[in-house]
Amino acid sequence: MADVAASAGVSLTTASYVLNDRAREMRISDDAEQRVRDAVTRLSYRPNRNARSLRTSRTATLGVISDHVASGSYSSLMLSGAAAAARARHHLVVIGETEGDRQLERDLVEELIDRQVDGFLYATRTLLEVDVPDALRTLPVVLLNCVDRERRLPSVVPDEVGAGRLAASTLVTAGRADALFVVGEDATPGALADGLRRQGMAQVLGQAGVEVAGTLRCRWDVREAFATVKGSLAAGTRPTSFVCLNDRVAMGTYQAVQEAGLWIPADVSIVSFDGSELAGWLQPRVSSIALPFNDMGARAVDILLDPDRVPDVVHVPMPMLDGESVAGSHARRSRHLSTS
């Protein structure tokens, strides 16, 4: 470390603060911090983790407690983002998956506390309002894709209200909102996305002087969406647009619309949510508003490692991915309407 300090032109104490990720806490200037990090790279310096842990009582590890996040092919992007951000801050991530088992959750929390992790991310696959384990409330913790029922802990969530506004504004601008139907309904206890997306849509539609024409209620599932939309069209419903609450619902809706002999987007425009790989498989490609899982994971780590963190809810914008399913308008990548 002495060589690093000398090469960077700083004191040994300053170099130590930077290498122990305490630069901000100790008010080290950005210039001095960068010089130290450049010296580390130049000298190929690697700190002794065991010695650092004994000296600082920090292990440079972060614990993640999740329900089904790691096993989800799409939601696992939150963990990818968190792990990358942790590595950039010289930390490692240790993940415990509970599969919704509350006793296993308590056991994993205790195990990670015994391993002296420096802080916790508490993550859920579905955007939920949650009761956080009591053992975490006195420790450094940030909630990821969920909010504390008591609103006393910092959280990072997708901007679902802004996404709803974006979906509605896309269809209003295209002149396809006069007979807009929402497809899908999330019956998961404590789930928030469905209601927040509808809230955002209602704001924009109200300003345009129109309302949602109706809701076709079904689980967020391809087959149920297909059967529900097919039945509605057979009964004489003539929508100008559908807002599908996720990409699986959009797939079922596409199948029903095309089986009815209608064309997308000439006869019916469609906007979806998720921005999953599935959105790119649909023809024409569906205009889908993406869940920013990777960015959310990274942002949660940054907040967790910030000594000045406050118990705010951070809303990460949800961008519209390019699509061809809205008549008269091609959705532009990275457009978003925030709630602020």
Automatic annotation (TrEMBL):
<feature type="domain" description="HTH lacI-type">
    <location>
        <begin position="1"/>
        <end position="56"/>
    </location>
</feature>
<dbReference type="InterPro" id="IPR028082">
    <property type="entry name" value="Peripla_BP_I"/>
</dbReference>
<dbReference type="Pfam" id="PF13377">
    <property type="entry name" value="Peripla_BP_3"/>
</dbReference>
<dbReference type="InterPro" id="IPR010982">
    <property type="entry name" value="Lambda_DNA-bd_dom_sf"/>
</dbReference>
<keyword id="KW-0805">Transcription regulation</keyword>
<dbReference type="Pfam" id="PF00356">
    <property type="entry name" value="LacI"/>
</dbReference>
<dbReference type="GO" id="GO:0003700">
    <property type="term" value="F:DNA-binding transcription factor activity"/>
</dbReference>
<keyword id="KW-0238">DNA-binding</keyword>
<dbReference type="InterPro" id="IPR046335">
    <property type="entry name" value="LacI/GalR-like_sensor"/>
</dbReference>
<keyword id="KW-0804">Transcription</keyword>
<keyword id="KW-0678">Repressor</keyword>
<dbReference type="InterPro" id="IPR000843">
    <property type="entry name" value="HTH_LacI"/>
</dbReference>
<dbReference type="GO" id="GO:0000976">
    <property type="term" value="F:transcription cis-regulatory region binding"/>
</dbReference>
<protein>
    <submittedName>
        <fullName>LacI family DNA-binding transcriptional regulator</fullName>
    </submittedName>
</protein>
